[in-house]
Q: What sequence folds into this?
């Protein structure tokens, strides 16, 4: 069986603005299956942004479940994230899903995993996927040494740097923001 590889998704909060972006590459084994996948979604009439890394079908299932939780909890992103993480960890079928999510509203960024984790990231930077550490490192440096950049610019440059290093990340980038 050929293993699906991941991607790069990063969210940055900088100067009270939040942006989230992802590359567009989907791979199957060592082959690029698609180069323009949209991995960022606007939910709750644009009030919540969600990005995914991992198996695409699994990620879509999780985003649908997250949307249901948002509806159940009146759009409360933190509560919906915690409830999704609990279900994901406890449910026999959901437990097998191989994906991660980053979700954001105008105030907060959260990472959600199948281990039951809901993490508010340090430095207001969250990154997931195979190129995540490259993008995160770049974003940390830019926030520190180029504070005049916007959150959207930091996300873009971080993803471009990751695309130059990670073979599972391309430079076909999608960015959504609350700027």
A:
């Amino acid at each position: 069986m050929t293993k699906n590889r991941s991607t790069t998704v990063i969210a940055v909060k900088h100067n009270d603005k939040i942006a989230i972006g992802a590359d567009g590459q989907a791979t199957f084994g060592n082959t690029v299956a698609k180069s323009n996948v949209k991995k960022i979604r606007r939910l709750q009439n644009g009030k919540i942004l969600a990005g995914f890394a991992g198996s695409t079908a699994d990620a879509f299932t999780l985003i649908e479940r997250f949307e249901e939780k948002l509806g159940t909890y009146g759009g409360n992103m933190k509560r919906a994230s915690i409830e999704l993480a609990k279900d994901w960890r406890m449910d026999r079928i959901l437990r097998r899903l191989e994906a991660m999510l980053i979700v954001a509203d105008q105030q907060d960024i959260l990472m959600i995993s199948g281990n039951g984790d809901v993490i508010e990231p340090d430095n207001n930077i969250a990154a997931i996927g195979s190129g995540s550490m490259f993008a995160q490192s770049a974003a940390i440096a830019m926030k520190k040494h180029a504070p005049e950049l916007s959150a959207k610019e930091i996300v873009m440059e971080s993803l471009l740097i990751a695309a130059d290093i990670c073979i599972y990340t391309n430079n076909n980038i999608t960015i959504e923001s609350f700027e």
